[in-house]
Structure formats: structure tokens, C-alpha cells
Specification:
single chain
Length: 155
């Protein structure tokens, strides 16, 4: 969590403390709210969000153009997340480095913040560096990137 997130959570905590139930979009968020004392385990519940309608498996006419705009000519594995430690993206890159996936790229779709600079400096020393694709796509491009991926990875 960054300081601004801590402030927002603090502001919302007062409201949450009065609620009978607080819904969170993931177990990770639920755990962070528990750690911050926002509510009890019985009152904090994870309720993962359903995908938006544009996240279908059916190919879209713009998919190939979006893929090409990121220079993704080879088959790829896709990670959508962030560079924060709890996302374990460094573990993913280490596993990719050790894998037999020489014909694939690893696409990491995330905003370059958090541990980004430190991780990129380390990854540039790895043999798999030429096969890493670090992109920060707008939300509208994500459905196409998901559809075109060989595999979605979520460490």
C-alpha cells in the first residue's frame, strides 16, 4: 500500500466499522483490511468481481491490431497486475527464466511503479530479458491481450 491508499483506507475505515458486512474484490484486499484493523474476519468478505462483457473468448476484429501495436509477434504468456512484492512478478520472471518456453514471450501488463525500476534492472541481466515484454496498456486493450495469450499466469 502506498501512503495515499493508507489515507483513503483510513477515511473509509470509519464507515466500514459501522457496516454489518464489508465486501472486498479479492482475498488479498480482505487480508490487507484485516491487517489494518478495518473490521473483523467475520465482517470482511471477499467477493471477486465478474468479468465485464468485453472479456469474451470470441475474437474481435481489433485484436490483431492491438497485439501488433505492442510488437507481440510470438506466442505469449500474460501477467496482468503490478510490480508490488505481493504480486510475486519477480518469482514469475525467475520461473520463466528457468522454463523451456524459448518460443514464447512473457508479457507483463502493469503500470511502471512500485518495485518496477529495481526489478527491471535485475531482469536485464537474465537470459530471458529479450523475451520479456513490459507494457502498460489502457484498460480498453486488455480484452484483446487476454484473448490472444496462450496462457494467463497469476503467481
Amino acid at each position: 500500500w502506498d501512503p495515499e491508499q493508507e489515507r483513503v483506507i483510513g477515511d473509509e475505515a470509519a464507515n466500514a466499522l459501522r457496516a454489518d458486512v464489508v465486501l472486498t474484490p479479492s482475498e488479498t484486499t480482505r487480508g490487507e483490511l484485516l491487517r489494518l484493523g478495518v473490521g473483523s474476519a467475520a465482517r470482511l468478505r471477499a467477493l471477486p468481481l465478474a468479468p465485464a462483457p468485453e472479456f469474451t473468448a470470441t475474437a474481435n476484429a481489433v485484436d490483431a491490431g492491438i497485439r501488433a501495436s505492442y510488437g507481440l509477434a510470438r506466442p505469449y504468456l500474460l501477467f496482468v497486475g503490478g510490480f508490488d512484492a505481493h504480486k510475486h512478478v519477480d518469482t514469475l520472471v525467475s520461473a520463466f527464466e528457468q522454463s523451456d518456453l524459448a518460443t514464447h514471450d512473457l508479457v507483463i501488463a502493469a503500470e511502471p511503479r512500485g518495485d518496477h525500476d529495481r526489478l527491471v534492472a535485475r531482469w536485464q541481466t537474465l537470459a530471458c530479458w529479450p523475451r520479456l515484454r513490459l507494457v502498460a496498456p489502457p484498460p480498453a486493450d486488455l480484452p484483446a491481450l487476454y484473448r490472444q495469450a496462450e496462457m494467463l499466469v497469476s503467481p
